[in-house]
Structure prediction request, 120 residues.
Amino acid sequence: MGGCEAMLAMTDTVRPAASTPQASRWRGRSGRFYTLAPQVFDRFALDSGKLYLVAKGSLVLWVGTLDDVVHDQVSRARFRLATDCADRVFALAAPADAVTRMTLVWDLEGSEPVGGLSAA
Prediction:
């Protein structure tokens, strides 16, 4: 098992959207709800000050920031693998406080969409 197969235990049949859909609601592993802004997957770029959730369908593959990709080798490797497998990406404002940001990453890594995902 390698590449995407190692990252994904299951696959979804949801295809990427042609344009950026409306905001999406996700529930973190803590039960807290988040409103995430979908990005156009083929054209998104990491910006400082934002936290990103990269997913394949409803399966979260990576959550982090530009700083994580630049300064953390493990996060950078996970990000590259995730973007090879993913079909969607969402963004929200990243907390300035490191502990709050790490807690948010943990919560979103175990999150799931509320009400499913729309392919349109």
